[in-house]
Task: inverse folding
């Protein structure tokens, strides 16, 4: 607990990057993407949205498609706060949703069963109110590798992150419209933001390209079936 208070007091606080949070990009067959979640979804760690997850994902998809995109994310959001934010937002139909959530649930000591309830509500909301066809859920990062965290706090949060990932994986396997994005980002200095906690530009580029390849492969498969 002492380490947790110390880290919270001394860790560098980075702002959310500047830039648009919605738009239309690219040419070709039309698709749509919604990025939702916490500070990583919001792009904390870089200076502009073009360098962040949204910018990299949209740029990659826009190479082959016309993409209508939007990002709804906020630093500090937990799974419950994300559900509330999406529930209050103006609803619109979207084909793909990319979810990044869980780090703040880890640090807020949420019980896994409560996390399941929150994520289940969010998935159902995205299906019914946003008409999401496919929901991609990114794994909670391995917090035992975060350079900003001292031991044994780092190890303990890593165990909690793994427990929540087990929940996310099970939820994804039980729903044909969901997939678990098990992406292993590097955690050396060149891939981390200067706070030692968030992704840097190189990590966001890998993350965005990885998800884009997943989406592009499915879009190509769907076209082949028509």
Result:
């Amino acid at each position: 607990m002492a380490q947790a208070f110390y880290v919270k007091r001394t860790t560098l606080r980075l702002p959310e990057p500047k830039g648009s949070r919605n738009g239309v990009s690219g040419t070709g067959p039309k698709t749509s993407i919604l990025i939702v979640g916490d500070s990583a979804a919001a792009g904390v760690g870089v200076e502009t949205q073009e360098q962040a997850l949204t910018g990299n994902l949209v740029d990659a998809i826009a190479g082959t498609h016309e993409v209508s995109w939007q990002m709804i994310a906020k630093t500090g959001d937990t799974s419950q706060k994300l559900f509330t934010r999406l529930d209050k937002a103006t609803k619109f139909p979207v084909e793909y949703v990319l979810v990044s959530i869980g780090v703040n649930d880890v640090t807020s000591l949420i019980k896994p069963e409560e996390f399941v309830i929150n994520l289940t509500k969010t998935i159902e909301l995205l299906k019914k109110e946003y008409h999401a066809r496919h929901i991609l859920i990114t794994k909670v990062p391995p917090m035992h590798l975060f350079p900003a965290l001292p031991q044994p706090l780092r190890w303990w949060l890593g165990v909690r992150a793994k427990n929540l990932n087990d929940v996310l994986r099970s939820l994804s396997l039980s729903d044909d419209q969901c997939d678990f994005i098990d992406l292993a980002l590097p955690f050396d200095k060149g891939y981390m933001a200067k706070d030692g906690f968030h992704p840097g530009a190189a990590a966001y580029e890998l993350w965005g390209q990885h998800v884009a390849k997943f989406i592009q492969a499915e879009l190509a498969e769907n076209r082949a079936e028509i």
